[in-house]
Specification:
With about 110 residues, the protein is mainly alpha-helical. It has one domain. The protein has five helices and no strands.
C-alpha cells in the first residue's frame, strides 16, 4: 500500500531491502506502482502538449483544458485509492497492461 502513496521512494525501498524484496506480493505491487507512475507521467506529458495546443483557442480551448486535467487527476486519484485498497486487503489486483508487466517483473527477480 505504501508503494502507491510514497511513489517512487517506497517502491525502490521495497525492491532493494530484504525481507520485502523476497516477497512476491510486495514486489508485484512495487513494480505495478512504478509502472503506473511512469504511465501517468507519459499521459500527463501527452495531455500537456494537447492542452497547450487547445489553449490557443479562446474560451473553448481553456474549458477543454481545465476539464481534461480535472478528469485526468480524478482518474489517477481513484485508481491509486482502488489499488491501495486492494493491496491493503491482500489482493494481487493487476491493471490490464501494467499488471501483467508487473507480474512478469516480480517473477523474474524472485
Amino acid at each position: 500500500m505504501l508503494c502507491y502513496i510514497l511513489w517512487p521512494v517506497a517502491c525502490i525501498f521495497f525492491l532493494l531491502v530484504g525481507p520485502y524484496n523476497k516477497n512476491k506480493f510486495v514486489r508485484f505491487h512495487a513494480f505495478q506502482a512504478i509502472f503506473l507512475g511512469l504511465a501517468g507521467i507519459l499521459v500527463a506529458i501527452a495531455l500537456q502538449i494537447t492542452t497547450s495546443i487547445l489553449a490557443l483557442i479562446p474560451i473553448l480551448g481553456w474549458i477543454v483544458d481545465i476539464f481534461a486535467w480535472m478528469v485526468f487527476s480524478i482518474a489517477i486519484l481513484v485508481l491509486v485509492i482502488l489499488l491501495m485498497y486492494k493491496a491493503y486487503n491482500g489482493e494481487q489486483y493487476g491493471l490490464p497492461v501494467i499488471g501483467s508487466l508487473a507480474a512478469q517483473q516480480s517473477d523474474k527477480t524472485a
